[in-house]
Amino acid sequence: MTNERHRGETALVTGANKGIGRQIARRLAAEGMTVYLGARDEGRGREAERALADEGLDVRFVQLDVTVQAQIDATVKRIEAERNRLDVLVNNAGVVVEWGVAVPEVTVEHMRAAFDINVFGTVAVTQACLPLLRRSPAGRVVNMSSPLGSLTFLSDPNHPISTRGLLPYSSSKAALNAITLVYANALREAGIRVNAANPGLVATSLNDRSPFSRGSRTPEEGAEVPVQLALMGPEGPTGDFRGSMDGAVEESVPW
Predict the structure, then answer these.
(1) 211-219 contacts: CB < 8 A, separation 24 or more?
(2) Which of 18, 77, 173, 183 is catalytic?
(3) Coil, helix or strand for 241?
(4) Residue 224: its pLDDT value, please?
(5) What is the pLDDT, as a whole number, of residue 207?
(6) Of the listed 18, 36, 77, 169, which one is catalytic?
(7) Contacts of 54 by beta carbon, 8 Å cutoff, 6+ apart
């Protein structure tokens, strides 16, 4: 059952076959949206589609590797044909490539792998979706970020974030934060709001190899902030970075 509040709206969530992305797709569909569930792996994507459909939700799998332009274009073409507009884009797909790699050992290949998905993939999907977002009366873009990309925290030698040493991940999320702000400024007059979300430290496969903490928050809890940003009304913020710091859902994260 859905509460129908957002019936008629359309959303695309990348990296959505498991973890936080799957919960975001589930929550948005429960609000009455038609949700396109993007996943690189067809088998896992279709399994997620079936499971959510069994809950009575309108969730449609699309094979979407954010580093493959042909798949991005095919996804946009399908959404246009079936729904004609996009109200919500959640850029959830992300990767950590450097667990166990000390900063002096990070290679250009590590950097490229992180930026391909966390930065270039986000830009490629967003740019391709902009014509559909412009057709929405209140388009919303939510970029999944992290306090590990906060220059405020990274520049403070006494803050735990500054000791993590995740060069590709932190720098890619810092770039994503800048991208969020530039898009927010450029799309403000078009009525498209662009914000960044910090889901908190969630126990997902992204953190399986973390030497620090795998996280105590559930994917359902991690989905709370991005869903709030995806569901906000026309009066909502743009160019904001919100997240779960010390359990405070509404706390702003410093850039």
Answers:
(1) 211/99, 211/100, 212/164, 217/244, 219/19, 219/20, 219/22, 219/23
(2) 173
(3) strand
(4) 93
(5) 44
(6) 169
(7) none
The residue with tokens 């359309």 is 10
Which two three-digit tokens encode residue 132? 């559909």
**Number of residues assigned to the chain:** 255
CA separation for the pair 120, 154 (Å, rounded): 22
Query: Do the Cβ atoms of 206 and 96 come closer than 8 Å?
Result: yes
77 catalytic per annotation: no
Instruction: Quickly count: other Cβ atoms within 10 Å of residue 159's Cβ.
Output: 14
Closest alpha carbon to 61 in 27, 12, 19, 28: 12
Per the annotation, the verdict on 169 as an active-site residue is: yes
Averaged pLDDT in 10-residue chunks for the chain of 255 residues: 74 96 97 97 97 97 98 98 98 94 96 98 98 97 96 95 95 98 98 95 55 67 94 93 66 88
Torsion (CA) 145, 147, 153, 155 in degrees, nearest 10: -40
Q: Which of 21, 36, 79, 44 minimizes the C-alpha distance to 206?
A: 21
pLDDT of res. 7: 84
